[in-house]
Amino acid sequence: AQKITQTQPGMFVQEKEAVTLDCTYDTSDQSYGLFWYKQPSSGEMIFLIYQGSYDEQNATEGRYSLNFQKARKSANLVISASQLGDSAMYFCAMREGTYGGATNKLIFGTGTLLAVQP
Amino acid sequence: KAGVTQTPRYLIKTRGQQVTLSCSPISGHRSVSWYQQTPGQGLQFLFEYFSETQRNKGNFPGRFSGRQFSNSRSEMNVSTLELGDSALYLCASSVGHRGDYGYTFGSGTRLTVV
Fold this sequence. Notes:
Order of helices and strands of chain A: EEEEEEEEEEEE
Largest interface: A-B, 26 and 27 residues
Strand content of chain A: over 45%
Helix content of chain A: under 10%
Order of helices and strands of chain B: EEEEEEEEEEE
Distance between the termini of chain A: 41 Å
Number of helices of chain B: 0
Oligomer: heterodimer
Shape of chain B: globular
Number of helices of chain A: 0
Structural class of chain B: mainly beta
Radius of gyration of chain A: 14 Å
Structural class of chain A: mainly beta
Radius of gyration of chain B: 13 Å
């Protein structure tokens, strides 16, 4: 069965420092997509970054980068230069079948609550 | 460009009642997916609609149903509400049925069943 595991329920980071949020996944598919979302207390899920299973380069979006290690089935999110506004819940998610026969079903991890301290 | 609009934002219902939640996707997006978020179970997939057809359904009882209209707006209905249905219900829209261009979520409807 497909599964996303986030082992860090909560993390603290000092403002302006970098932080890594862990995510491991389990799938038997060769083709899949990995996402990171941010959920502030308002509830909205905000898309941060995407990595396709066939993408050779690690994805980057501004201060966000995804450390994709396919053999280890990990897709860690790195936030550089943390800001107070980064305090939120962060979810790793997977969609299977990126390049054919895909659905739009996302499987989410349990999330990591990040607190950025001044 | 308007985002994904979910209405209402908050809802309080009594056990046994039914409820209908609405989701208007981003203009041009034809796929709408629904998710339930609870503290105990986390985020769980409910169902997905594309061009008015249900393409995929999660592991929820038949009390949970949905539909999509020709303008891509979607509704989900929960009949005979139970206390455990209290949750944040999120919908996400995407351009196609493969989500290659990502998913945009709405702010959710927070349902409380008393």
